[in-house]
Amino acid sequence: MHLLSAKPVPCAAITGRVQVERSSNTVYHQNTLDLDPDLIQLLNESRDAESDNLSRIDNNLRHNFMKVLESFRSVGISDQDFAGTTGYGYDDRGRDVTEEVYAKVFRTESALVRHQIASGTQALSLCLFGLLLPGDEILFATGKPYDTLQTVVGMDKQIPGCLTELGITWKVAPGNVHEDSTFESIANSVGSRTKVVFIQRSRGYSWQRSVSCLAVSEIAQAVKARNRDVIVMVDNCYGEFTETVEPTEVGADIAAGSLIKNPGGGIAPTGGYIVGRKDLVERIATRLTAPGIGGEIGPSLNTARLMLQGLFLAPQMVAESLSGTCVAGHVFRSLGYRVLPDAAEIPSDNVLAVMMGDEERLLTFCQGFHVASPVNALYKPVASPLPGYAHNVIMAGGTFVQGSSSELTVDAPICPPYIMYMQGGLLHHHVEVAVLSGLTALKRRNLLDP
Fold it and tell me: How far apart are CA 334 and CA 343, in angstroms?
């Protein structure tokens, strides 16, 4: 997050007044956040209206929690496994059991889970560089990928080290993945040089629905009917535990994501994971270390406990995030905003996209939202350039782990139609309070109506 100054920033949404707003469902003690009472009432009404979806989220939580618990039990985790190694990391028990648990949870042959993987983009980049050779082609089945991965591929310009510099080509399949006829179009796009078919589950920085595991399954079946050797790869960022199955259970050969998103549970201090077929994970591991070494080295440096504890908490955290996003989406729709997921979508990620339509409205909401953060709340987020992004980006929401969007953040590229993307949330109450804080800031500046 980029900060304007190191001094506390005055904000109309902050007062010294102690006030309690009462409603039929919620009591918010407002020591410093003077939340608008009409907006609180609207949020309570929205929660009641979303009761069926909230019950569905809770049922999914029960299933996913049992899946994770049984994975821990089957591996036989003990507290002695939390001790890590240094140096080369030979025979690091903490690292090995963490990867074994991940393989169990995602129902795969193998897993690579390392704190040396610092982001989701790095995990995905490792996969692509490990699986593709010069002359191969990658087919993007669900549209262009997230901004930072476009840079890895070399879509808009060729930078040193990108895939296109190595003679690897790419193309985007036509059509809308949410239309049945598109699966045939994707299959028809598979050519003789197509090595990897790439699926992004999250909506990313685009105005589209998330991709369900059912859609992943149908894409996998369609492309493998055309070429059985094609590798189906899934960017699983923000998708873990949003459904009762994972992509690797329904046809994906390999999936990857970040531990400072869903599977880290808000506990993991850093890291990324790759799960899938054993032969593919082994190839990818050589890109993390070196050929002939692969996953056999890499000290866990005593991070195993945090990674495992985060995974154990992840289903609960994702359910909290989805519950908060569900209610927040209803609030925005009630106010007249265009929102994804819309009322007809059962989300397969925990990202809420809202079309703000105006730069001032977008920035005001993000800054008001940030006031409700537990960390860096006295700083004012501003838009600025970030590596790998085409436009200036505002990132709001103070987190305990830097960049941990699983904790609760909102960010947006500063370009029309000025869409903000809210993700994460360790507690659904925090999601509600932060959204109310952002909307209250809009109302006080007469910017609430879209």
Answer: 11
Paired strand residues for 110: 276
| CA dist list (Å): 45 to 26, 39, 100, 364, 391 | 11, 10, 44, 24, 37
* Structural domains for the chain: 19-62+315-444 (3.90.1150.60), 80-312 (3.40.640.10)
Q: Comparing C-alpha atoms, which of 386, 385, 412 is closest to residue 397?
A: 412
Half-sphere exposure of 386 (CA within 13 A, CB side): 19
pLDDT in tens, 29-81: 555 789 999 999 999 999 999 999 999 999 999 999 999 999 999 999 999 99
Count CB-CB contacts under 10 A for residue 171. 12
**How much is the pTM?**
0.91
- The rounded distance, in Å, linking the Cα atoms of 172 and 232 is 14
125 C-beta neighbours (distance < 10 Å), count: 23
pLDDT in tens, 415-436: 999 999 999 999 999 999 999 9
**Sheet with 351-355, edge to edge strand ranges:** 338-340, 351-355, 419-423, 409-413, 393-396
